[in-house]
Specification:
This protein is α+β, with helices and mostly antiparallel strands and 109 residues long. Helices cover 17% and strands 40% of the residues.
């Protein structure tokens, strides 16, 4: 039930800045932007998105893992991580959906 918007900028292969906003259902708007720690921001970079998919396929215990790729070069545009299965039962609230809204390759330094 939680919605977050991540904004991550990578320059020359190095994380330059990262912020997160949480959806405020009561205000029906995105809350204030807050810094996102580098270790969390990594998973919102292109290499991190690929690692998320690979890790989920290899050892997440999820019932479903799906990734849709787009662009040139292709990158994960949508990642769907179904619920985790523990002891043969699905665990409610463990689903996740990552939807890349925009992606730009910038020229220069």
């Amino acid at each position: 039930g939680e919605a977050r918007r991540h904004t991550v900028t990578v320059r020359a292969g190095v994380l330059a800045e990262a912020h997160v906003q949480y959806w405020d259902a009561q205000a029906r708007d995105w809350g204030p932007s807050a810094p996102l720690p580098a270790e969390e921001a990594y998973y919102m970079t292109v290499p991190g998105l690929f690692e998320t998919v690979r890790g989920a396929l290899l050892n997440s215990g999820r019932d479903e893992v799906r990734a849709d790729f787009e662009g040139e070069p292709p990158f994960p545009r949508l990642i769907i991580l179904g619920p985790v299965r523990q002891g043969g039962e699905l665990v409610d609230g463990t689903e996740a959906r990552l939807n890349v809204q925009s992606f730009e390759i910038l020229a220069g330094p």
